[in-house]
Amino acid sequence: MSPPVFLADDLDDAHHVFVLVVEGVAVMLQTVSWIAISLGVLTALVIAADERSHPQGMQIMNVVWPVTGLYFPVIGGWLYRAVGRPLVTHAHGAMAQEARWKSILLSATHCGAGCVIGDIVAVALFGSNFAIEFALAYLFGIAFQYIPIRAMRDISPATALWEAVKADTLSLVAFEVGMFGWMAVARFWLLHEAAAPSSIAFWFMMQIGMIAGFATTYPANWLLVKWGVKSGM
Question: I need a labelling partner for 114 at 20 to 30 A (CA). Which of 3, 140, 161, 196 fits?
């Protein structure tokens, strides 16, 4: 028995409304993605421009702060002004004594910047692949720790590398767990066909994932400082 005509018409209307809603959400996601990514790039550029006249005492932080602004639009700029800029005139140790959360925040941004660069390079060169992203994020993260250790301490390269691995492995893994957790949700439940790196929505999801990674690496850095594995910055 065929369904009544009015029921078939109602189903068609409901399907049409559903399609319009899905298309509207997709357009809104594209718009929000462009705004968020543009604000991230603008925040990074503003921080980098300010650093030209107010360079950080620890050189690697001149890279860390713009990268932080890239995935923390606007908020990254505020953090730089509140925490990063005072380091131009105050030593890192003095800042650490003034407020422990600021010291751990610096460690978290430092760790996060290496991961972010590694993840972006991995996706740009090899596409979205968690294994490759993790490998490059870990390598860049360790490099970000190794460089200041070598600059500040009179130790051999091998010893400096071991100190970097010991100090940052847990925090790097914590960052990637947070980011990959969010990206798995985005890839398999939210984006579907828009989950390719060619989509601006993909990079917006990456931006959110990096914020999630920061949220998971902050407590890891707090524990590492508490245990004496690493010192706050």
Answer: 196
What span, in angstroms and rounded, lies between the C-alpha atoms of 201 and 24? 14
Closest CA to 90 of 52, 58, 44: 58
Q: What is the pLDDT of residues 11-57, one digit of tens each?
A: 555 544 544 455 556 778 899 999 999 999 999 999 999 999 999 98
CA distances to 28, 37, 56, 191, 204 from 207, rounded to whole Å, are 17, 8, 25, 14, 5
Percent of the chain that is helix, strand, coil (3-state, to 5):
85, 0, 15
Instruction: Please state, in angstroms and rounded to a whole number, the distance separating the CA atoms of residues 65 and 215.
Output: 17
